[in-house]
Each structure stands twice: as C-alpha cells, then as structure tokens.
C-alpha cells in the first residue's frame, strides 16, 4: 500500500496519461445533470462530487446482454471478445466492493467465467471514497462495506478539494502509481490527516445500525406469514435486482440470425415468476413471498454462509427505485422481529 | 486454455428408443463428434449435463449411461407440452446432432458406498441416473466392492416402466435383488402392484452397514423418507438427487439456489441431513 497525491488541477493530465493505456470511464455529467458513467477525456472531466450512478457497474463486466456463441449449419463457434484495456476512475467504493462480491461468483476456482474474467483482467479500478451519503437510503456502513472500503478496487482516491490522495490496494494499483509518478507527489502530513478526518466525518453521516446479526436471525427461518406481509406490495417488477450491484442471476436466450442462431446471456431476476418455473409447469417459487424470501435470504443468509460476508453493499438503489417503496432494511427488521 | 463452460460439445444421435406407452420418454444414445471430447468427458453416476440445441435452448438432464459404456452417452428425456427444448429434442432423428455441456454436479459418493449394502429406491422418470448407477455397480470390475444391492423401482403403470429389457435381466441375476412395482396394474401385468413407500416397508431391507439412494418425484420422497428412517437409515446415509430449473450448470446463474447450496454445483446429490431443514427442498 502506497500513498501519492496530485493537485486537483493536474487530474486532467493524469486522465489523459491513463488514456494511453486504455479507455478511461468515470462519472460525467449526463443530459439531465445527473452523473453517469461515460468516457473521460480532456474535454469531459470527471465529476468528483456526485452521489452515485443510477445504474450499477456490473454491466461493465457482466453486460445486460452479450453473445456467448453463434451457430451455423450445425457448427457452434465460441464468441471471444477482444481484449480491451479499461480504466474505471472515480467510481463509488460501494460499487467497487460489489465487484469484489461478483469476483467470488464469476472467478471461483471451480469454474471461471471466461467472459467476466477477461473483462475484469482488462480493467483497472480506481474508486473514490464518499464524502456524503448519496441519499437517505445509503447504508453501506450497516453492511460492513463503508464509504472508503478498499475491496474490489486497485486504488482508492480521496478528494480533498485542492488535492486528491491516492492509496494503492493491489499490485496493479501500485503499478499505476509508479507509472504516473511524474504527475504525483508525496502527500503532505496535513493531507494525510485530511483523509482521516474525511473518513471519520463521512462515517458520522451514515446510519450506524449494523446488519451483521441478520444472517444469524434469518437462519432461524422466519414464519412464512411474515414473508407474505413484507412482499404484499411487491409488483415483481425486478427493478431491485436489475439495479443491484451484486445481483448476478442470468439466463441464456437463443436468437435467430439469418440461417443460424446465437446464444445470448441476459440478466435475469429471482423476482420473476418464470425464473424457477420448470418445463413441467412445477414452480418451487410460484408465490412472490417466496421470491422476496429468496432475494433477502440469498444476500443476508445464504451468501454469508458461503463467503462470510453480506452480499449487499448498502448502495440503497433497490430502496430508492422500488415503485412500492419497499425498504430491504425494514424487510429484514420485520421478518426477524 | 481451459474449455469455455458455456459452449457445448457436438454429439451425434446413434439411436433413439421410445421408453414408454405414453411415448413422452425417449432415450438418446449419443456418440462424440470430436474424439478429444470423449476423453475429456469423465463422469460419475448421478451427474448430469446440459443438452443444448442451438436456436432453441438448453435443459439439464441426468446421465443415464454408465461410465463403463465407452464412447457413448445416454440421456432419457421426458417431453413436456410446454417444454420448448424437450419437445425439440423429441423431434430429432437418428443421425441428427445436438450439443452437450458437462458433466455437471457431484454424482453419487462411491468412495463412501464401498463395502456397504446398497438400497436403491426409484420412482418414475427419476430412475435414469439410478439406471446409470445400477449398470455401473453390476460391472464385474466393481461389483465385488459392494455388498448386497437391493433395488425398488416403481412407475405409475406397467407401460411407464423405463429400461424394461434391463429390468428383466436384473431380475434374473443373483447378485442384485429387484422389486419392480406399479401404482396400478393393467391387463397382462403379473408383477407387484403397490406404491413405492409400501414396497419399502414390505421389503424392509436392513439398514445395518447400508446406504440408501432414493430418487423420485417429491411426493414419493415425502412418503418414502419416513419408512426409510423407521428402518433405521440415518439421514446422513440417505442420498437423494434434487432437480431444479438451471441455466449455467456451474453455480453462477442463481436459478437452482436452495439454502446455501446450488443444486447444479453442490448437488444434485445430497444426503438427506444436508437438506432436510431447507424449507424449499420440496418434500
């Protein structure tokens, strides 16, 4: 772990220098004024003060739709995307943490996902610590992630206004600091102190309520009636899963192309009735209360059993965007009451 | 570079056998189009594969052949009216091809079963991987590794029994005890009539130094587990195989998640003690 600083005015130069290694993506001003993930260049600087993107970043490695193979005249040809170096700069630490979770799934040694793996290998991740919650729905501290967590990132940046302090997390992050050392300088003692103060101040702005007990409480298997109550207003629209940075369920679809076909991988959601409906018509999760149970249990009970961590980073997207105003924190509280 | 787990290997249909009167169960015997695939495809009874039809889709099916059947794989596929892939597979002819991804899942734990008495209980269409298992166990090279083998197999009616020729052969043998039963007899049926759980009670094989493998529809499992427990089979000695809708087959797509397990990767074979407290186990 090394720390380097850069004057904020020089950030443009750093981004231009990074651009020589690959395409740099980060927060840019969108049409409606909100920050969206877009290419960073001399002309489109990174937006440093923003809440968070509406869409999670999983689509960078695990797109909403991608071609896995094509078939023509009985021969199946594997789709091999080209290597394309990418830098993700200034993304939120919760989204980086979510990548760390997805790595456990897609890069697990027993079966490595070649598509995810290729894109992940090609990507340098430089996150930026939060200085304020994006909304009242932010609860990263409750999940153990926290506004300046390092997981999933190669380096994490702290925006101190006039300067940005970078801290490397991985060897790749170290190499990034070394490569651009002419642009960096040693951080001053005041700047290092500033980073600490900022972390402490941001922590205070977040909900302190911990969800670390959730796996233990959920393991006791709440009464099915409770799940029916908390899911009563759920529309099964799947917004929570599509916007969740750690949700990774997918489906394969076949599509005709001329005389052949191609096999696509598309995002899917455990909140949909068809997700577990079998060819026989049998469906172990025909009822939406069971689907709600599955989503919550997977994140707060099953995955923690396998990975020893909650599979939720507390980004709050599912809460902000639920058309029925379902709050997963309240859901857990109600079913484990 | 290792094989892309999402790309199927091409196989050719050598033979199609219609298994039942309802004609909705067909056994496909396949051979490998690429010789190298044959040596890569090493499997254990109880494993499954994704059958893949480009332009149509994929579905998970248990392997019905035995690892001793060199150069071929067999899958018995049930056609469902709403099953797009199973219907398309049933429309294929000998000489046609389709893809196979696998083998997937854990299979039966033969290391633990060695030196034990084995009770194998099957119902309906779930008998496919049990047929693989029995064929394997009866091979002269491994039969001596196991003690008594008892098979109880039931179907709705005589016309729904799978692998009839092999059932007849097994009944002739002295190194396996076979109880075949049907829920409801028909004209000409001279065999046993009765539900699987009742046959388990009647046959009452000893649980001493034994393992039980039980595969069947959830309703059969629900009523067969109590008599097995009564006979003294402890939950860790009762093995079953679960079925779920699946996409990837390698523990990523999330579809077959049940408790902390993925049926495709951690199963499909589970000992009953591992899954009995999971509300979604289905029985």
Number of individual domains of chain A: 2
The helix-and-strand class of chain A reads alpha/beta
Number of strands of chain A: 11
Pick out the low-confidence regions of chain B. Answer: none
How many structural domains in the coordinates of chain B?
2
- Tally of contiguous helical segments of chain B: 10
Helix content of chain B: 10-25%
Core attributes:
heterodimer, A: 337 residues, alpha/beta, seven-stranded mixed beta sheet, four-stranded antiparallel beta sheet, 11 strands, 34% helix, B: 283 residues, Elongation Factor Tu (Ef-tu), domain 3, Rossmann fold, 2 domains, six-stranded antiparallel beta sheet, 10 helices, 15 strands
Q: Brief overview, please?
A:
Chain A has 337 residues and is an alpha/beta fold. Chain A has helices at residues 11-18, 58-61, 93-106, 114-121, 140-143, 171-179, 189-205, 214-219, 224-230, 239-243, 288-307, 317-321, 328-335, and strands spanning 3-7, 23-29, 35-39, 65-72, 75-78, 86-92, 123-128, 155-159, 163-168, 250-257, 260-267.
Describe the structure.
The complex is a heterodimer of chains A (337) and B (283). By secondary structure, chain A is an alpha/beta fold. Chain A folds into two domains: 3-52 and 81-205, no CATH class; 214-335, no CATH class. Chain A contains 13 helices and eleven strands. Chain A has helices at 11-18, 58-61, 93-106, 114-121, 140-143, 171-179, 189-205, 214-219, 224-230, 239-243, 288-307, 317-321, 328-335; strands at 3-7, 23-29, 35-39, 65-72, 75-78, 86-92, 123-128, 155-159, 163-168, 250-257, 260-267. In chain A, helix 9 (224-230) crosses helix 11 (288-307). Chain A is globular and about 65 Å long. Chain B is α/β, with parallel strands linked by helices and 283 residues long. Chain B has two domains: 9-103, Elongation Factor Tu (Ef-tu), domain 3; 110-241, Nucleotide-binding domain of ferredoxin-NADP reductase (FNR) module (Rossmann fold), CATH 3.40.50.80. Helix content of chain B is 25%, strand content 30%. Chain B has helices at 35-40, 84-90, 110-113, 128-137, 140-143, 164-172, 196-203, 218-231, 263-266, 272-275, and strands spanning 9-18, 25-32, 48-53, 57-62, 72-78, 97-104, 117-123, 149-155, 177-182, 192-193, 210-215, 238-241, 257-258, 261-262, 269-271. In chain B, the strands form three sheets. A seven-stranded mixed beta sheet of chain B has the order 10-9-8-7-11-12-15, with helices on both faces. In chain B, strands 4-3-6-1-2-5 form a six-stranded antiparallel beta sheet. Chain B has a two-stranded antiparallel sheet with strand order 13-14. In chain B, helix 7 (196-203) runs parallel beside helix 8 (218-231). Chain B starts with 8 loop residues before the first strand and ends in an 8-residue tail after the last helix. The mean pLDDT of chain B is 95. The chains are: A alpha/beta (337), B alpha/beta (283). At the A-B interface, strand 4, strand 5, strand 10, strand 11 and helix 11 of A face strand 4 and helix 2 of B.
